[in-house]
Amino acid sequence: MLSRQPGAINLGRMSAPAPYVSRVPFESVHPKALAVYCSDGRFTEAVEDLAHHLGHARLDTMTIPGGPALLNRWASDYLESAGFTKAASFLIEGHHIEDVLLLAHAGCGYYHAKHSALGPDIAVEQQLKDLHFGAKELQTAYPHLRIHLFYVRPKGATIEFEPIPREG
Questions:
Q1: Residue 66 falls in which region: left (phi positive, over 0), alpha (psi -120 to 50) or beta
Q2: 33-37 and 60-63 strand pairing
Q3: Are the beta carbons of 102 and 165 closer than 8 angstroms?
Q4: Mean pLDDT, to the nearest integer, of 11-34?
Q5: What is the reported pLDDT for 73?
Q6: Rounded (10°) angle between helices 78-94 and 120-141
Q7: pTM for this prediction
């Protein structure tokens, strides 16, 4: 049974812990940047740091194993790609996205699972192809977007973002 307080749920006889209230304030305006990258949590904070470095206080994110790989319907599962592309379109249109960061990272488990028999160099080559394919698809559908490509590597105790030039 729902309680009469907006947003509250009456759990009846069940006792629930008090809600956690974040110290991060809610901002009603959507970010203007979208980062598409692998869900490997070792890179999450670094991607947010990159966004800040590029002038974005906040960003929308699409994180899933392989990240931008799913924008390439020819190299990933077609149904997964269709759903991922539809979600990206929803965010770009609905949140009025202006900048998109497409990131691939060294040692990606998604690419290892798909391409390990071909060797690590082929996996990196495919990652770069997928970045370029995703950028081209997004730019064709949304010419106003500023699209930034990065290859991400751990370097000692730091994380390095190598900008990848766009293909002509």
A1: left
A2: parallel
A3: no
A4: 88
A5: 86
A6: 40
A7: 0.87
Here the tokens at position 62 are 């699409």
- Say what the pLDDT of residue 20 is: 94
Spell out the SS3 assignment of the chain: CECCCCCCECCCCCCCCCCCCCCCCCCCCCCCEEEEECCCHHHHHHHHHHHHHCCCCCCEEEECCCHHHHHCCCCCCHHHHHHHHHHHHHHHHHCCCCEEEEEEECCCHHHHHHHHHHCHHHHHHHHHHHHHHHHHHHHHHCCCCEEEEEEEEEECCEEEEEECCCCC
| Residue bearing tokens 């629930």 | 16
Number of other CB atoms surrounding residue 153 within 10 Å: 13
Q: Per DSSP, what are the bridge partners of residue 148?
A: 101
What's the CA gap between 111 and 28, in Å, rounded? 36
Q: Model confidence over 67-101: pLDDT tens digits? A: 999 998 887 888 888 999 999 999 999 999 999 99
Q: Is the pLDDT of residue 35 over 70?
A: yes
- In this prediction, residue 15 carries a pLDDT of 77
